[in-house]
Amino acid sequence: MNTEGQTSIEDLRAVDIFAGLSAHDLEQMAKACIQRTYQPGERCAVQGETADELCIVNGGKVAIELRIEVAPYTQRLSTATLRRGNVFAWCALLEPHVLTCSARCIEKAQIICIKASDLQPIFKERPSLERVVMKNLVTIINSRLTDIETQLVCLVAEMIKQGR
User: Fold this and answer.
1) Cα separations (Å) of 121 from 117, 118, 125?
2) Range of the domain at 73
3) What digits encode the pLDDT tens for the residues 46-63?
4) 40 preceded by a cis bond (ω within 30 of 0)
5) Which stretches in the chain have pLDDT values below 70?
6) Distance between CA atoms of residues 156 and 64, nearest Å
7) Beta bridge partners of 74
8) What CATH number did the domain enclosing 122 receive?
């Protein structure tokens, strides 16, 4: 992983969690961002660890993976493939801040990271901005949970078919 460059308003304009924010709001957010580059196969978030940064794919592809353990079985389920503008590690904004899935780079990826502690003063100054971000986050979480539910149903059906 390498840390590099500034984040522009244009980088943030297409970000799902920032939909509906003004150019001024995006400018405030951009000041709090850092960018990192990850290599294929590298993990940029690990299930079970504590998160203090919201992460956004700015280039490349990232797989969201859920590790399911039901003794004696362990299964890793790829629940989503994220592309430019998609957010992950949102639990940095929500207590208890524990990652519920891992994120693994499928190809070289540029990731925008924003420390939750850097967002707090922005949200305190602009509560309406926080409301928009959190409303967008609820929509994203709902969509991802729906996808996970569909994949879990398929996994259980396959396990039943195999007699596990």
Assistant:
1) 8, 6, 6
2) 2-161
3) 999 999 999 999 999 999
4) no
5) 2-3, 164
6) 19
7) 69
8) 2.60.120.10
